[in-house]
Amino acid sequence: MRYKKFDNFIKTIDLDFYRQKYSKIKIVEMDLPRNIQVLKTMYCVYWNKVDLDNIPDYERLYEIYHHELEDEIEEFRSKIEMCSDCFNKGLKARIYRTWASIITQIHAGYVAETVFGEGSVAMSDKLDHAGKDFVVSYNGKTIPIQVKKESKRPESRISRVGGRGDEQIITIKYCVPNPRDFTTPRYIRTGELKPQVLDFCEFSSNGILKRYDNGFVVFLDKVFQEIKDTLS
Questions:
Q1: Out of 33-42, 125-134, 143-152, which region has the weakest mean confidence (pLDDT)?
Q2: How far apart (Å, rounded) are the C-alpha atoms in residues 115 and 133?
Q3: Bigger pLDDT: 104 or 176?
Q4: Which partner for 109 in 47, 96, 134, 141 could form a disulfide, CB atoms 3.0-4.6 Å apart?
Q5: Which residues pair with 211 in a beta bridge?
Q6: Boundaries of domain holding 183
Q7: How far apart are the first and last CA of the chain?
Q8: Coil, strand or helix: which one is 184?
Q9: What local confidence, expressed as pLDDT, does residue 155 receive?
Q10: CA distance 192 to 56
């Protein structure tokens, strides 16, 4: 099953290593032009043309991305007049932050596929730029879905927002406490659980989210089953 192989890959990612390596590097923080964004490469490597028996880690993904867009990246670097060493160091850290977020989104697409059926989910950079993280085809309907991270527990985990024309985009929301909160989930003075941890625990106990040992928070199939039930 496609989901199982990608899920196993997610569990092998050393998030703590990457955070220590890249979190404090914020040299390239300006908006990147669309032609050097990493989205197209990510959707190709992790979804459209994915080799599920040899899924690239971040370092390999960055090599593929940089090789594909080397000329465009250098043109942008020259335009902003930043030295090569600083720019390359900052770009790699910047792309990592995008990678970590999109990987969660792509994982959600694989989970949705287990509910709606293989081949039912489509995702691409074009859809992403249109505000659709992925699109589900089911019962003759096309359902655009957006995955949105919240800093605290959202009032509603599933909502509908207007898109272009009469199109409705389903937004599924999730909250992720700071990694430090999982290390020390209780206040020292009172012993009470921190609000962010309580919010996450509510989602987890309801079978919506799960946190792996490496720190990745992922959706379980229940949230997509709820969407499917409303369409049946």
A1: 143-152
A2: 17
A3: 104
A4: 134
A5: 217
A6: 120-231
A7: 24
A8: coil
A9: 56
A10: 41
Residue 206 pLDDT: 81
Asked if 59 and 161 sit in the same domain, the reply is: no
Same domain, 61 and 18: yes
Same domain, 91 and 9: yes
Query: Based on the domain organization, do 26 and 92 belong to the same domain?
Result: yes
Contact 10, 212 (CB under 8 A): yes
Number of domains observed in the structure of the chain: 2
Domain boundary among the residues 81, 96, 112 is at: 112
C-alpha 84 chain-centroid distance: 28
pLDDT averaged over the chain? Answer: 89
Q: What is the pLDDT of residues 113-144, one digit of tens each?
A: 999 999 999 999 999 999 999 999 998 889 99
Compute the radius of gyration of the chain from its Cα atoms. 19
Q: Which domain-ending residue is among 52, 83, 112?
A: 112
38-58 residues labelled b (16+ CB within 10 A) or e (exposed): bbbbbbbbbbeebeeeebbeb
Stretch among 64-68, 77-81, 148-152, 196-200 having the lowest mean pLDDT: 148-152
Tokens of 146: 């957006």
217 and 136 in one domain?
A: yes
Same domain? For 80 and 124 the reply is: no
